[in-house]
Amino acid sequence: MFRFALPLAAMLTAMAAGPTAASGDIVRIKSAATVSATADALESVVAKAGATVFARIDHGAGAASVGMEMPDSQLVIFGNPRLGTPAMQDDPLAGLFLPLKVLVYADARGQTWIAYEEPGETLDDLGIPDDAPYLAKMRGALQNLTMAAAAGG
């Protein structure tokens, strides 16, 4: 199970790191660190919370491998069966969208961002009730983990 306790100092640092922006159903959080350092911090806080990092995909390296350029971008895929399994029990198609995914990327100006889709929206087209308790837990986990990563772990 995720442990969401963040020291007050870490939360305040994350808040100082920059605003949280919502673009439709995508939540974005500024990070003062590089993409790589922010993704490292995200992996660290995910592990400390008791979840599993299943994969880290380096989109920038993929582009470079075929002679193309793009700003740094890494996708971290992680989860916890205690949260994901109930969603898949309610609708097996939730397995198409889980585990959770967080993108850490640099915009055209070099600003690092952490972005994720709000879980209720991710699973919106499935037979999952809007008030499912695991959705609130997923929201809380994503918020706490990404804020901690933006603060450097």
Write a structural description:
- The protein has one domain: 2-Layer Sandwich (TATA-Binding Protein), CATH 3.30.310.70.
- The radius of gyration is 15 Å and the shape is globular.
- It is of the alpha+beta class.
- The longest helix has 18 residues, at 133-150.
- Helices cover 41% and strands 24% of the residues.
- Helix 1 crosses helix 6 (133-150) and helix 2 (35-48) crosses helix 6 (133-150).
- The protein has a six-stranded antiparallel β-sheet.
- Residues 1-16 form the signal peptide.
Write the layout of secondary structure elements.
Blueprint: H1 8-17, E1 20-23, E2 26-31, H2 35-48, E3 52-58, H3 59-65, E4 73-79, H4 81-90, E5 100-106, E6 112-117, H5 119-122, H6 133-150
Antiparallel strand pairs: 1-2, 2-6, 3-4, 4-5, 5-6
| Cα Rg | 15 Å
Write the H/E string, N to C.
HEEHEHEHEEHH
**How far do the termini sit from each other?**
19 Å
Structural class: alpha+beta
Question: What would CATH call the class?
Answer: Alpha Beta
Our estimate of the beta-strand percent is: 15-25%
Query: What is the count of DSSP helices, taking H or I runs of 4+ residues?
Result: 6
Helix share, percent: 40-55%
Keywords, please?
single chain, 153 residues, alpha+beta, TATA-Binding Protein, six-stranded antiparallel β-sheet, 41% helix, disordered N terminus
